[in-house]
Fold this protein.
Amino acid sequence: MRRLWIVILVVLLGSLLSAVAQQKAPVLKAKPKKQPAPKTEVGGKEKKKQKKSAIQTGEAAIDQLVAGNYQVALDLNLFLGFPRGEFKENNTHVGVGLDGSLFYHFPRTPLLVGLNVAFNTYGTTRRHVPLSMFIPDVTVEVERSNNYLIIDPVIRLQGHLGWMSAYAEVGGGLSRLYTKTTVKDLETDKEVLSSENLSDITWNWWAGGGLGVVLSSGEYDPAQQKWTSNPLLLQIGFRWLSGGEAEYLTPGDVNVEYGSVSYNVRSSRTDLWVLLIGISLRE
């Protein structure tokens, strides 16, 4: 019985192999590849020329900067801020502080672009008091200042004629008004403690101009519109500043009584007339 099954299995395998051998293998036809359009030699050359021209233009601009066909200007001024409008009704104190501007002078133009920072204090009060009710034998100084900080981008047009200089400028940005109380050591005048009583941020914009006089020897090249040496100028400037509405304190608006404190907070626009007196450097 076992031999019969072996014979049948061999016959079936032989028939299967014969059928497989008689079948033809299918023929696969390869699809023709698309040939990319040949690049024209003229188009390639034009692209290379355009790329080379752009690189040369960039290199020329860098060479112009490296060659020194630009200048940096630095202004340092005494800042006097005179309140006007609603701000003057609430505060009659003139702000006194410092003003500084750093400019980039574009080559062969009268255009300068930079950043202006001005800080002024429009009132300070001082008093000597015991350190505390438990330490009455130690006296300290309490100083309270009312401050006006301005940070603005600025654009200036400036021209020179001989030993004279004139400019017009516009700027705008942010103003911060804050009142700060500081405890100081009477002997060393060092700050021991400090705290802000009130702070507010608003916008501002302004326009102005000024005149300058060359103090040190300097030569100005009208064709290049730049100084060929580094001069020192004495400048006087004026600004009309429009400030946004803010909350602030003035001298006398902080009341301290029997260990408690109260504030007379004011709110108005913060407009100023500004007078600047200082020096200008060219590098």
About this structure: Residues 66-282 form a domain with the Porin fold (CATH 2.40.160.20). The mean pLDDT is 81.
